[in-house]
Amino acid sequence: MTLTHCLLLASFLFCVGVYGLLTRRQAVAVLLSLELMMNAANLAFASFAHFKGGPGQVFVIFALAITVAEVAIGLALVMLLYRRYDDTALDRASEAKG
Prior knowledge:
It is built from four helices and no strands. By secondary structure, the chain is an all-alpha fold.
């Protein structure tokens, strides 16, 4: 597998994540799309670190730590949304501003 193959896979995963982010209405599906986009970026960092050298692995570990924090906060928000409205549709979240 070459660098080009890895980057094509990462770009495909990122595009699938963007598509899921733009088309989904449920909060859990949006969070999964964000995770897919973050993992695509991590794959690109790790690919560059493997084939070209450099501090890419450090960026991957840092990004994974941020991703774990994002998941924890996102799931807590989804649980609060579900408790309040008995649904996880993001349209309801805009009503909760006030």
